[in-house]
Design goal:
By secondary structure, the chain is an alpha/beta fold. It is 42% helix and 13% strand. It contains 16 helices and 15 strands. The protein has an eight-stranded mixed beta sheet, with helices on both faces. The protein has a three-stranded antiparallel beta sheet with strand order 12-15-14. Strands 1-2 form a two-stranded antiparallel ribbon. Helix 8 links the parallel strand 5 and strand 6. Helix 1 crosses helix 3 and helix 2 packs across helix 3. The chain starts with 18 loop residues before the first helix and ends with a helix. Bound molecules: 4'-deoxy-4'-aminopyridoxal-5'-phosphate. The site of 4'-deoxy-4'-aminopyridoxal-5'-phosphate has 15 residues, from helix 7.
C-alpha cells in the first residue's frame, strides 16, 4: 500500500519543537494507531517535503528517527515502509486501561521502540536453580564479601558523617586518584581531575549519549553489540548504523563508508573482549579507527567493561591512548572485575567534555554513593583489588577452557565459536537449522539460562542462531552439567 493523497501534517512553524520532531511524532502516532498500516510505503522525502513546504533534510531527519525506533524501514532504491510493531505486553488493552490519563496512553505510544526492552543482561538471576549462562557479570560467589564488609564497617565508624552525606559530583577525590593510577597501567596519562566517577559505566554511556546525541542523529555501533547500549540509543531516537565485528573487532575497513554516508556523531565500540562476541580489536584497527574518527570529526565512545580480565596474549592499547586530539571518551567500570552492586564506573575524557558530563551527572543523580566510593577506594588501594584480579583471571581462564571443551563435546556439529582471550563470554553460532529464541524457554525448563542472540542486533532476526554463554559466573561442574543439558535441548529441538 502506498500513501497516495498528499499528507497533511499540522506544523507549528514558530513553535519551540523542531519541525522534524513534530513530523516524527505525528507519523509515530499514525503508525502506532494503525492509521498507517504495516507495509505502507511512505511518501518519498522529496514529495512530503514538497507537500509540507519544508526542506527534504527535515523529512529525512524525521524518517531517520522513526527508523531508529524500529517503526519504519528504509530500503535503498525502493522507499520507506511501515514496519510491524514488536508485540508488547504493555500495549495490550489489558494493561493500558482506558481509565489511564491520555498522557499515559500517549507515553506508551511514543516509547514504543524501547519501553519493553529486555533488562536481563544486567541481572544474573533468572530463577532459582537455573545455571546462569545468561549472566553479564563475573561469579557472584567470588565477590570479596568479607573484606568489603569489614572495610565498610570501618568507613562508617571513622568517617560516617562524610560517607553518608552527598559527596562531590565528580566523585570521591582519593578514588579518582586511584583510578588515574589504574589508567596509567593501561598507558593512559590521566590525572584525578580527568576522571568522572559514575553510577556504573551504564550511567557513563547514558551521559555521553545525552550530551552528544539529538533525535535524528546517527550513531555507529558494532554488529552485534551490548543490548543495553542499543536500548539507550533507541530511546534517544537516533539512527543506529551497525558495522560488523569479526574476531579482530569492528570491521574498520567498512567504517569509512558508514562515516561518509551517515555522518554519525558518535562511534560506540567495545574493543576488549566485546559484549557479546568476546572479540578483541587488533592494534591496527584501533589505530585506523582513531585516525578515521579524527578525519571525519566523530567522537569515539570506548567502553572498556572487562579490559582487565585478559587471560592470554599482550594487552592492546586503549583507543584513548592512541588519541592525540581528545576525540575519544573512555568509559570503564568495577562491575565486572569486582562487583556490579557497588555501582561505580568512570569516564575519562579531555577538553570541555568531562566538565559537561559532570554537569549532566549532577542533573541526573547529584553524586554516586559516597559510602560505596570510600569503601571501594580503601579496598582497591590496599592492593587487594590486584590480587583479586589475578585470582579471577586464573579461575575464569580455566572455566573458559572447560566451556570450550564441553561445547565441542555436547553441541551439534557445525556449531561455531572462537575462544576469547579475555572477558566473560563465548559467542556460539548454531548450524542453520536451529533458532536460539525458540530454545530459550525449553532450556530454562531444563535448568539452564543463556542470552539469546537477537538482543544484540539492531535487526533482531540476524541474531537468531546465536547464543551468548557466560563461562565466568559458573563453576566447571555447572559448565559440564549445563552445556550437556543445553546440548540435549538443542538436539531435541530438531
Ligand atoms: N558496557 C557493557 C559492554 C556491559 O556489558 C555492561 C553491563 N552489562 C555495562 C557497560 C554497564 O555495566 P555497569 O553499569 O555495571 O558498569
Amino acid at each position: 500500500m502506498e500513501v497516495q493523497a498528499s499528507m497533511r501534517i499540522p506544523l507549528e512553524r514558530s513553535g519551540s519543537v523542531p519541525l522534524y520532531a513534530q513530523i516524527g511524532s505525528f507519523l509515530r502516532a499514525a503508525i502506532i494507531s494503525g492509521k498507517l498500516p504495516v507495509q505502507t510505503r511512505m511518501p518519498s522525502a522529496r514529495r512530503l517535503a514538497g507537500d509540507l513546504g519544508i526542506s527534504r533534510m527535515t523529512v529525512e531527519a524525521a524518517y531517520a528517527g522513526l527508523e531508529a525506533e524500529g517503526l519504519v524501514r528504509r530500503e535503498m532504491g525502493s522507499g520507506t515502509f511501515v514496519m510491524a510493531l514488536a508485540p508488547s505486553p504493555t500495549r495490550s488493552s489489558a494493561e493500558v486501561p482506558e481509565s489511564w490519563p491520555q498522557w499515559q496512553q500517549d507515553l506508551i505510544a511514543s516509547c514504543a521502540s524501547w519501553h519493553d526492552l529486555p533488562v536481563l543482561d544486567v541481572s544474573s538471576v533468572v530463577g532459582e536453580g537455573v545455571i546462569p549462562f545468561e549472566s553479564g557479570t563475573g561469579d557472584t560467589r567470588r565477590f570479596p564479601l568479607a573484606d568489603f564488609r569489614s572495610i565498610m564497617r570501618s568507613v562508617l565508624q571513622r568517617e560516617g558523617k562524610e560517607a553518608l552525606d552527598y559527596g562531590e559530583t565528580r566523585g570521591y577525590a582519593p578514588l579518582r586518584r586511584t583510578i588515574s593510577e589504574i589508567l596509567s597501567l593501561h598507558g593512559l596519562q590521566a590525572g584525578a581531575d580527568d576522571v568522572l566517577i559514575t553510577s556504573g559505566s551504564q550511567q557513563g554511556l547514558a551521559l555521553v549519549a545525552q550530551l552528544l546525541l539529538r533525535p535524528g542523529d546517527s550513531v555507529v555501533v558494532e554488529r552485534p553489540t551490548y543490548a543495553a547500549a542499543l536500548a539507550l540509543f533507541r530511546a534517544m531516537g537516533v539512527r543506529i548504523v551497525d558495522v560488523p565485528v569479526d574476531r579482530d573487532g569492528m570491521r574498520v575497513d567498512l567504517l569509512e563508508t558508514a562515516l561518509q554516508r551517515y555522518h554519525p556523531r558518535l562511534i560506540y565500540t567495545i574493543p576488549n573482549f566485546q559484549n557479546p562476541t568476546g572479540a578483541c580489536m587488533s592494534t591496527g584497527r584501533r589505530r585506523s579507527m582513531v585516525a578515521l574518527a579524527e578525519r571525519y570529526d566523530v567522537a569515539i565512545l570506548e567502553d572498556d567493561f572487562v579490559g582487565d580480565l585478559r587471560y592470554e596474549g599482550r594487552a592492546q592499547p586503549p583507543l584513548k591512548a592512541l588519541d592525540r586530539t581528545g576525540g575519544v571518551i573512555y568509559v570503564s567500570t568495577f562491575s565486572k572485575m569486582l562487583m556490579p552492586g557497588v555501582r561505580v564506573g568512570f569516564v575519562h575524557a579531555d577538553g570541555p567534555v568531562l566538565k559537561l558530563l559532570a554537569g549532566l551527572k549532577r542533573l541526573t543523580d547529584l553524586a554516586t554513593s559516597s559510602a560505596f566510593q570510600r569503601t571501594l577506594h580503601r579496598y582497591v588501594s590496599i592492593g587487594r583489588y590486584e590480587a583479586h584480579l589475578r585470582r579471577s583471571r586464573r579461575v575464569y581462564a580455566t572455566r573458559r577452557d572447560s566451556m570450550a571443551r564441553a561445547l565441542e563435546r555436547y553441541f551439534p556439529s557445525g556449531s561455531e565459536f572462537d575462544l576469547p582471550c579475555g572477558g566473560l563470554f563465548i559467542w556460539v553460532r548454531l548450524p542453520p537449522r536451529y533458532a536460539a529464541p525458540e530454545l530459550l524457554s525449553r532450556a530454562q525448563k531444563a535448568g539452564v539460562g543463556f542470552a539469546s542472540g537477537e538482543e544484540f542486533f539492531v535487526e533482531r532476526s540476524s541474531g537468531d542462531r546465536f547464543l551468548r554463554l557466560n563461562f565466568a559466573a559458573v563453576t566447571p561442574e555447572e559448565i559440564e552439567r549445563g552445556i550437556r543439558s543445553l546440548g540435549k535441548v538443542i538436539a531435541e529441538s530438531n
